[in-house]
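Attaching the record inline, Q. Sequence:
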Amino acid sequence: MSLKISQIAPDTKAGSLSAVLSIGALLSMVTTPIWGNLSDRTTSRFGRRRPWLAGGVLAGTAGLAVIALAGNVTLVAVGWGIAQMGFNASQAALNALLPDNVPEERRGRVSGMVGFISKVGTLIGTGLVVLAGSGVAPMLLLSALFGIFMIGILVAVMPDCPADPTRAVPAPSVLLTSHAASGPIPTSAGPGPGASCSTSATRSSSPSRPT
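Structure, as predicted:
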């Protein structure tokens, strides 16, 4: 980002860079909880997480492409905003995969493994930036294309069920009220670790019986 700003606005580099990064940070802070909330409610036949993982990384890459082609600071800010919102949509769904698929007693170990792999991914991304040379466009897009490749593998093999409408997650204001009144409440509308999509679908389609 610094290289791009220095190319198009060398005289106002510090101020322009600060403004662009601030816009991105604000959009990230505001939209990430929204994407996670919507992901929990997604009833797509592709699952709750897949649409946000794939759509987010594609939108983020499109934002980076806007930055690469931008000829002024305004377009850079627009591209960075799109990139932040897109990649954070993907990240919100990614963060939910652990509680979705791993039993509680194994989450500590798996979380440690995920943390280690994340550091490996950072090293690979840094290596790709070095290989890209001094060009801003290759530097931005090469890592993004690698991200699309890896997310593509993930969405192809991971288990993912649509949200169960009978277990819909309440809106944020309801969450706060319910938590204060009655303690912890469910934070996911999915079938839970180890449950199959067919089991969840059967449960949601079965009529309730009086007891």
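The chain has eight helices and no strands. The radius of gyration is 20 Å.

More tomorrow.
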